[in-house]
Amino acid sequence: MAQEIIRIRLAMPYRMGSVNCYLVKTDTGYILIDTGSSNKRTDIERELGRFGCKPGNLKLILLTHGDFDHSGNAAYIRKKFDSKIAIHPEDSQIVERGNMFSNRKKGNLIFGMIIRTLFGFDKSKRFKADLYVTDGFDLSEYGLDAKVVHIPGHSKGSIGIVTNDGKLICGDLLVNSDNLNQPRINPIMDGLETAKNSVEIFNNLGIDMVYPGHGKPFKMLSFFNNHTDSF
């Protein structure tokens, strides 16, 4: 199967940086991995159209986790593009309740209110997924020669997508800089040891390139070379 990964970089509110969505072009259509926050809805719509993704050929919206900067446009795009949304079941309550702390160890009421205000995840943007994906889920039905890998740490239901040719879309488990090539574990973690265990899984998957939720893509080898003491 032919497959091309297109990075769509969207600005986050209040100059909080950027977030990546990945549009994967296959022989049979497109898969959108993550959707950005709702403040950039017009931008992601424009980018989808620019690369030929339109209502009828978006086979799946696949969320690496439920946080608002990754799922904020999912319900809107599902309706407009007549698609389906997939998420790991352990993050489903985040998008159903509009509360990113609903399944995390530490919740802060005030911080949660601030986040919901910044990302605009009100009732109109909450949703119930059409499909729940777990470790080993095969995406070939949707035209993508890849499988889902469960990589908790940032959230309980975080997932990665590993293609047969050694590419990994990792959500927020790993991050990088757009200016420097310094990939690292995301400092915002629900469980650091859990995250490290998830990273160790990558050793046996033959991964070459990594496409993070924040920052530019990088070589998996460059991450391990910089973290020899930890892994």
The overall number of domains is: 1
Give the strand tally. Answer: 13
CATH topology group: Metallo-beta-lactamase, Chain A
* Major sheet characteristics: 6 strands, mixed
What spatial order of strands do you see in the largest sheet? 1-2-3-4-5-6
Count up the helices.
7
**Amino- and carboxy-terminal Cα gap:** 33 Å
**Portion in beta strands:** 15-25%
- The overall pLDDT, averaged over residues, is 90
Sheet/helix structural class: alpha/beta
Question: CATH H level: which superfamily?
Answer: Ribonuclease Z/Hydroxyacylglutathione hydrolase-like
Overall, the morphology is globular
Low-confidence stretches: none
Overall helicity? 10-25%
Radius of gyration: 16 Å
Order of helices and strands: EEEHEHHEHHEEEEEEHEEH
CATH class: Alpha Beta
How would you describe what is shown here?
There is one protein chain. By secondary structure, the protein is an alpha/beta fold. The protein has one domain: Metallo-beta-lactamase, Chain A (4-Layer Sandwich). It has seven helices and 13 strands. The chain has helices at 41-50, 68-71, 74-81, 92-97, 109-119, 192-201, 220-226, and strands at 3-11, 18-26, 30-33, 58-62, 85-87, 131-132, 146-150, 159-163, 167-171, 174-175, 184-185, 209-212, 218-219. The strands form three sheets. Strands 1-2-3-4-5-6 form a six-stranded mixed β-sheet, covered by helices on one side. A five-stranded mixed β-sheet has the order 7-8-9-12-13. It has a two-stranded antiparallel sheet with strand order 10-11. The chain starts with a strand and ends in a 5-residue tail after the last helix.
